[in-house]
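Worked Example 4.2. Consider the chain below.
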Amino acid sequence: MTSSTEFVDCMSMAPAVNLAGYGVGEALFKSVVGSLPTGVTVVTSLDGEGRPVGMTSGAVCGLSCSPPLLLTCIGRRSQTLRHLLGHGTFCVNVLGAGADRLSDRFAGRGPDRFAGVAWRPGPRGVPVLTEGVVAHAVCEVYEELGGGDHTIVVGLIVGGEHRPDAAPLLYHRRRYAGFPED
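Applying the procedure from the previous section yields the following structure tokens:
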């Protein structure tokens, strides 16, 4: 197991301290976080001209039942983040086992990630993927919070569907896997 030789106890510092440069290095951070198996999603919204935008994200989780909230963490420089916050509504599409190519497509920087991808407009027009997904949640932006080089977007779930018979796509240590079947 890889470990860090240096550790700074950030909890003992005053809150106003800039934490940049503290903690473990980027390589160890990525190795440790990459060891957490995560579900794979595509977060979608619309740009200012009504065109679909989206990106792959493994940083999504349920937050609260009452009110029904989920959160996603998106890099501060992301164009999808800018458009999502501008539109105020987004969709979290939970990918199904075998949807590796769909994940890779939305993780890349292609000019039109939606070319050839099956989707339909959901509430307020947000793209809801219709193939390769096990569930989706349409959300209105409820709150946004800073989180280092990412923005934590909390969404109020206003609609969605799920397929209980389908297995999700997982990502672990830079590889895809399907969830084990019963």
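Residues 26-34 form the longest helix (9 residues). The mean pLDDT is 88. Compare this with Example 4.1 before moving on.
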